[in-house]
Automatic annotation (TrEMBL):
GO terms for molecular function: ATP binding. Pfam families: B_lectin, S_locus_glycop. Gene3D superfamilies: 2.90.10.30, Bulb-type lectin domain, Transferase(Phosphotransferase) domain 1. Residues 6-121 form the Bulb-type lectin domain. The chain crosses the membrane at residues 408-434. PANTHER family: G-TYPE LECTIN S-RECEPTOR-LIKE SERINE/THREONINE-PROTEIN KINASE SD2-5, RECEPTOR-LIKE SERINE_THREONINE-PROTEIN KINASE. It comes from Castanea mollissima. This is Bulb-type lectin domain-containing protein. Keywords: ATP-binding, Disulfide bond, Glycoprotein, Membrane, Nucleotide-binding, Signal, Transmembrane, Transmembrane helix. ATP binds at K500. One of its GO terms (biological process) is recognition of pollen.
Amino acid sequence: MASVPVLSVFSFPNANRTSWLSPSGLFAFGFYPQDDGFAIGIWLVNQTEKTIIWTANRDDPPVTSNATLNFTIDGKLLLRTEQGREFSISDVDTVTSAAMLDYGNFVLYRNDSYVIWDSFDFPTDTILGGQNLSSGKSLVSSMSISDHSSGHYSFNMQEDGNLVAYPVNSSNNPQDAYWSSETFYGSYASLILSGLGVLFVHLSEGQRQILANSSNPDKNGTTIYRATLDADGIFRLYLHHFKNDNSSSMLMEWSALSDQCDVKGFCGLNSYCSGMGSKADCNCYPGFDFINTSNKFLGCYHNFSEDDCRRSKDPAMLYNVTSLENIVLRGNYPYAVKPMLKANCGQFCLEDCNCGAVSYTDSNCRKYKLPLRYGRINANESTITFFKLKGIHSTQIPELFIGSKRSLILILSVILGAVSCLCLVLAASSFFVYRQKLVRYRKLSENVNLGLAEEFTLRLFSYNELESATDGFKEEIGRGSYGVVYKGITSSGGKTIAVKRLEKANSMNISVKTDIYSFGVVLLEIVCCRRSIELNVSTADEIVLTDWVYNCVAAGELQRLVVVEDENVDFRKLERTVKVGLWCVQEDPALRPSIKNVILMLEGKIDIPVPPSPVLCIAVS
């Protein structure tokens, strides 16, 4: 066991102390190159290149070559950057020594040689021989072979005993899963890789289901096994053999999937996977283009607008359809199914502005809304799918047809005369309204005791007036940006008001994303059909709109945001719209999306992560 005491310091420029080696020299813990900097992790020391098996704080940006790894006298393992910032590698202190063990586990000890932290308890994308993945834990793939930050897929040891692979940021429903061990044996199951290369799910009462059994190792040297959720989303078992002559080799012993297109989410929204085995590729559906041709995982977007569809009396004239065979839509449920002939299925979609595609199989036509997820080509499926395309008449809305030149001249003459008269009426009316409002404004300005009438102009309140109106800031009704909101009543007019008392000053300039914040507030007000601060509500939690919306999203109670109970509410779109609004009203301007990303998120072309609470962001700032 290679043990390192406290007060040890490792910095990358020092070529002699960039890592801690295990006794055999097969494993190392320390700095390794990533992107244009360095990350901290554990790797297998191969002759050709490092095989990364664990990364600390994997989603943090790489550090520069001047960073150091410090094992301090008070028992903490810290990463210190060039700017002097410190990040903890483990969440424990009172550590007296550390060791890089020969089976790939990095451990921290207290003074009685008791292990208080080890890397095996916090796997990233790999487990090694002798390591297990217990119930409730998961592996997350790396972004790529060279980028070991969190990627697009997860491998979950569920509490029901089933080992399941999902795309990251999916709802983890059965329709999102693309591989499963099918072991439903309770909450005590765990995935184990033995030191002899046996990969199995350990079930309750001593039972186990073997997933893979590696070939017998070569006795001429040392054999190490690892099971990795690779960047392409496939879980594989590898064998690394280190011979006595210092040569090494690697073999793939087992793969959970053999066809890359079986991985849901390998291609982004509105695209489909084609090819077989490892030779898979992503293609946009007809009528769509890639958001980024160099990153096909981002998916595709409609290359034409459907705004004219809802304004037209005959939307079928605006579009054409084209078809693809053997397409399987694995991530969408049809919202309408109707038996008909194949020749009529495309027209069934053209007549519906909500329809993005239809599939025909078993004499039934199935309608689907956009975006389309998890599509792939499957030669065994006798399915034909129709997609909308922009038609040659799409820029013309066929609502009015003129019978003859004479009728056209007559109609234009009538319209021109009507418009001229209307302009005169509007000019006279505008002048009259202006005069009336000017007189009304002067009367209002002369009377300061009218209270807060709805039409009254903005006025300045003194602190004493607000303190009196709120009875000394007595009744708290909510919290918003930078302060507490109190209920009050004006002395003149008895108008109920909400008063925010600032808790701290902010001397920052107006944010360049102030318009994004305003857009988010308006978006939430439109969705919820109410103002940002509403006093006449059933509970105090509903007074501040942003707080109430966030609490409803966190509790999964989106139905509370809908004023009118409507069975046709699309809660998926409602959730997407609400999440966009919450991202826009983040207190930290850096967290607010750009207007381009706002549009892409509202259209469903990019994924929307779960937004943090605006109140939490305020507290941290």
